Amino acid sequence: MVLLRKLPGMPGWPAALGLRLPQKFLFLLFLSGLLTLCFGALFLLPDSSRFKRLFLPRRATASSSSSSLRTVARMAGPPAHTAPGSRQQVQGGERRAEPATGAPPARETRAPLRFDYERFRRSLRHPVRGRRPGEDPETRARRMKIKEMMKFAWDNYKQYALGKNELRPLTKNGHIGNMFGGLRGATVVDALDTLYIMELEEEFQEAKKWVEKSFDLNVNGEASLFEVNIRYIGGLLAAYYLTGEEVFKSKALELGEKLLPAFNTPTGIPRGVINLGSWSWGWASAGSSILAEFGTLHLEFLHLSELSGNPVFAEKVMNIRKVLNRVEKPQGLYPNFLSPVTGNWVQHHVSIGGLGDSFYEYLIKSWLMSDKKDSEAKKMYDDALEAIEKHLVKKSAGGLTYIAEWRGGILDHKMGHLACFSGGMIALGAEHAGQERKQHYMDLAAEITNTCHESYARSDTKLGPEAFRFDAGTEAMATRLSERYYILRPEVVESYMYMWRLTHNPKYRQWGWEVVKALEKHCRVEAGFSGIRDVYTTTPTHDNMQQSFFLAETLKYLYLLFCEDDVLSLDDWVFNTEAHPLPVNHTNFKASVQ
Ligand code: DMJ
């Protein structure tokens, strides 16, 4: 009505339009109908919850958040698929039933739920760290040596590069790089859980203090969605689950929100690069998305939904799975590049090493993390592994089993260092294959791990090259100068750790100890650890880079190799692809908000 008030000296505007009385009446009727419709739309359209909060009393919005938790529960897995914290749970005599499928109750009466950290800690089947009685002194001494290496790597980073992303140990300064879009402290966040697990208390407090006081999320710049997710989100989530310190949780959630615009594509398949600034379109790169990048978000994003109560993170990754399930797979294989616009493969290059690797890892780990409820992930993993075995697994003339790469049907007989994680992954999956498949997959895992060990054993430094080949008489050695480097990567010791835990064959500890000695001899320099440019010379030149994953992964897996099995037990934890432990959902961690 205010709109229609006559301004001094002006006719009312219906009158100005020259309308007569009945027309004016009809016009007003139309206008009030329009207003009612707009107001109603605020409440009825699916994305209107933000507006609702403006108009509805608090209590009513709380109940909608509670039902959104159940939405996560229904979404995060197929039929019986359930998301973290969403299944039937018996603990301390309490049974909380959540509808896994089916219609929600007609009226929401329950109070909203929050993540209950204490309940989660009580749900763990093993203590996360600590000494075990009666262990042999040599194992303990080796573990202590690895702890000393971690302290050395951390102390030098702290002294020369604190707040930068990585340490340059030769020039004694920091490196920022261009992967993290203005975020800093990659080494701090990557190191948090390793420091905690190794009981480096003072160092852990130093790292925590940096996160509290200096970790700035208001940054601008183009970042890799994948790297930010696996290192920062993974590192913060793990630190929260291990310690219960709220600062890690709130930083993880805040950063998680900043990643969401990457999913604004026609298919919902995220682009690889995200602009972290607030006034941008979110994503920054054109071109195709990479399987190992958009396929390596699932574990962290389910936990972001779990901790925040906001289903949006789980929705995003469940949509990725839907697109992947829909698209046709050549020979059952997943090519490495997909268009985020059309949802079709861009070219037919398949690899279990770089570009493909952690997609497969996250399928089996999604199933394990769901406490074996997410059977869709398990099936996708089983089918993918079957196709890989059929088309890519080969045996060399010298009897070494390896996984080749596939380019539109033509095999490239090369295996990257990155692909060496697959020994551990296949062993982890074998545990849960049917009885006769179990032994088959354990054998395959052992053979691949052995091949990766050979790539180390055949070098002069006893460290492995970036890629090794099986052609023209070559077996498990790099043939190109550009593939001879070692940048402190973890994948081989990662497989040793899983193989040790799952078989207790002492050779895996022995092989791990060889790596420790080689790292000390060739990579330790005055101010930290450095990668080397050529593993086939005993006087290698250094690349002047202490990668953050050396602290997150390489040293953590080596340390765990010399721990008892119940330290970060595989019953309770899955490791994300940066070795950050995320809990298996044994229980419903939610409690009513008081
Ligand atoms: C790590 O950042 C992760 O393991 C990732 O999945 C692949 N590569 C590096 C370490 O080599």
Report the span from N to C terminus: 45 Å
Backbone CA Rg = 27 Å
Sheet with most strands: strand arrangement: 8-9-10
**Uncertain spans:** 1-17, 39-111, 279-285
Into which percentage range does the β-strand content fall? 5-15%
What ligand species are in this complex?
1-deoxymannojirimycin
What is the residue-mean pLDDT, rounded to a whole number? Answer: 85
Described by strand count, sense and barrel closure, the largest sheet is: 3 strands, antiparallel
Q: Give the fraction of residues assigned to helices.
A: 40-55%
Give me the number of helical elements. 20
Task: Label this structure with key terms.
594 residues; mainly alpha; 3-stranded antiparallel beta sheet; 20 helices; 22 strands; 10% strand; globular; disordered N terminus; binds 1-deoxymannojirimycin
